[in-house]
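Data deposition worksheet. Section B asks for the primary sequence of the deposited chain exactly as it was used as input, without tags or linkers unless they were present during the calculation. Section C holds the resulting structure in token form. Section D is free text for depositor observations; keep each observation to a single sentence. Incomplete worksheets are returned to the depositor.
Section A, Depositor: J.P.
Section B:
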Amino acid sequence: MIFYVYLDPKVIAVARDSGELGLQTLIGILRGFLQNCFVAEFENHQVQDEIREQIDGLPETFDRTLIKKVMAQMKKHHRFIYCLIPDYTEARDALTCAREQSGDALLDLLLLDEVGEEFAGIEGVEAATLFNYQHTQFEHDRSKLSAEGVALAESAHDQHDLLDRYFKKALRHASRIEICDKLFGQMYRGNYEYTAHVLFEWLERILVDPSNCEITIHCGAPDPEGPARPLDALKADLTSFKSGNLASVRLRLCLYDNDRGGDSLPHDRFIVTDQIALGLPRGMDFLNGATRKNRDFSLDYKSVEQVSDLIASYATSRQPEIEL
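Section C:
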């Protein structure tokens, strides 16, 4: 659902030198990246520094303003991921480092000013220029997912394959993960319980920096006379997830009462991070413990601001948060 790209800052100069059509092409690509891509960055911030320099060198036109706005949105939503290491000896340039590290960094695309022979045949990674980008399989897949989302029949994937395929790149670099599912607390048993166990075991393996990540679960309070396991069991399970690499994660449970004559939380379910928001209509019972595969499953993109505001609108039903 999320793609990782390396954006060579020199592409901006190519767009500038190609006139208005080149800048319009660049704006269209960047807007596409903003929909469902993270941009690979070096730990010394050199990509962003060079992008800033290139933008400062553009003519002061409306196109320059649009490019600055898109890049500001990327920065605001933490879309730059620090997954590349520069050569501090300066023996290799940034592009060589990005190419050599593209596999470990899980990159999908290198967008370059020109594509040399050294970029051919990199397994799992495409290289493109500003003017052949629309021919790539990457753009076909990226735009299709952005427009259509994902809808899967039951048992389409093994549970770990599903998580790796549709969640890994979305959650891997997150510093904040919020799960919103009213029924998770109200119905905590069966596939809800199983999905939570598998998800947290998987998060322990894939999070890049668990010590810098906080996870919050927003859910309805269990009814003592309802079908769910009791609250103490839910709390004990969630606490047990904080082991191994997740020991340093800040984990919070936010329960909501149905005390305002309506729903305690939205009907729809979501996963929201500091970077993106995903709609998860099935909610937190999307895995089947009997088959160890997915249940019928769908996923799409949402606005982080809109989903956050929606959850906040239920604040009157929220109990004091529980630190686990």
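Section D:
The chain has a mean pLDDT of 95.
The two ends are 30 Å apart (CA to CA).
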